[in-house]
Amino acid sequence: MSAPRRRGPEPMANYLLAVTGPSAGGPLAELVEEARASRPTDVGSVALTHGWTLTWIARRAGQELHPDGVFTGFAYDDESRAFYFGSRGIRRREQQTDAAPDLPGCFFSARWTADTLDASSDLYRSMPMFLTTEPGLTIVSDSPYVLLRLRRRLGLPITLDPVVAQSLLWRNAMAAQLLGTRTLVQEIRYLPPGQRVRLALPGGRSSADVVVRPLAEHFAWQGNSYAQTIRTAATRIASTIKTVAGLGPEKARLSLSGGKDSRICLAATLLSPEASAAARFSCLNTHPSHQRDAEVVERLAAEFGFHLGSRLPPEQRRAEIWHVADPLGLWRTDCSLAYYALKMQSFGSRSKGNFAITGIGSELYKGNYGLRSLASVVSSVRERTDADVASAVEEVAAEALETAGIPRDRHLSAEWHYLAFRNALHGGRFVPVSKFGIRPLQQRELVGLSKLVPAEQPEGMEGPRSITDDLLVVLGPELAVRPFDDPRKTMPPERVEQRLAVLGGPVTDEDCDAYSVLGDPRDVHDGPVPTLTLWAELRHPRSRLDRESATAALDEAARSIEQSPLATSWSDLLAAGRQYLLDPAVRLDQAQGLAGRAISLAEVLEVAS
């Protein structure tokens, strides 16, 4: 008889930061005191200057606070060649530099002085940031749903954004997550990469501001040699994986497919005998439609001698896994209002430092939206979609990009949009259950390099799509010539030799040192926070994330929408969403996320002012 599944906590967000002025505590202060009495480990508080109070809600909240800041998660710094785990680790970094963290990883960070509080999260926004602010009150969380329900409990206005609602009628994967910083709730804003919250403390009645660093500046290419930039990125990818693998057996867990992106991660791992011996390799594409993925990965494992699957004893593997008690509820609390595909990791690991490593990030270079401008995308929308819907899409998306310093007609502006929104929100879907996800292909210098206009591209570069090919060539030339899921991806040996000559030959294990590790993975506390579950007043019964429960949730949402002024405009999308859910040939997590859009809208309609 198999062991029973070990259930984890109820669904809810990772963190909530609330900063209240001297006269703005009221109902929130009461909630905090109730939480402190029932779940003291979830609550931490700090008295700031000028009468402000900071409250931090998270798992083991007190361990993440320090005298002038809060930090949850992990970061790594390729320049300093170091990993930082938890508040203890990042404090070691702050003793060496005054700069606030602006690093890859998965974290949220806030720091304060006598006059100012600044809050941000990791470079690529694996850890999301949503903001709601009123005079004397600023609240930040990774969950817009938490902010929505908390505003309701505090008696604050909740206003549906009709333009955002209209934009969701565009049935395209680009609209399967936020199209801009605006959400369905006018009072709740998303902060993409390059943006941070700043609160001026003097006066005690301030609302928070959003400080914006232009995206093109934030990810500017600083190099002068294409070959050196590729080699530096490749060594950093390999060093990152080598460091994680060095944390212990099967701490580096690579998910492989028959494609090129995971092949780069595989090549980087196999570069080091120690890393390849310690890592766990698996192919999770087991659906019949992905049979080719499994075939390719199995052949590679046989040829290159790496083991597929875990080597840990079965009882140890079972003991370390916990399962989400309410997967659909977790999707509501952590995805709705931001990421609409019904896609959710429904399990986590009790063992700290088990890193999920995937090839997400390569589309930052090779393109996800056809290497086009946003103006070109909008023109296509206008040709195929209702004019009002197209106008809403343009308003929401272009406004967000232009705020970030990217004009809608700029070269590759649609790919800048991908960086700011889909890459962040889709790439961070592991966060509701774990902070231990790493995307080594996301390389800051390569982002800026890939966005150069052709006339500015350095010698040796053959366009943005060549970047991933060249990473694979220098990390694993022998893997570049092996079969892929699509024969067109396989590089001829003579082509590999040609590129190696341009790029200075292959990278070796001697080029890739493991980084130092500051702090301990056990200092990273992740997973849903029980206090926030209580604050959000979840009203739905526990449900699996399957067709039956998703259809029931969509039907409930449809009843709410059909009683609203949006009934007519949303009728076709509701019908299409239900058709997709009932069709077994369509994956439940299909990219357009039509059912999730409707469920999200209904959540707002229920409580809107």
UniProtKB/TrEMBL annotation:
It comes from the Bacteria. InterPro entries: Ntn_hydrolases_N. This is Asparagine synthetase domain-containing protein. It comes from Desertihabitans brevis. The lineage of its organism: Bacteria, Bacillati, Actinomycetota, Actinomycetes, Propionibacteriales.
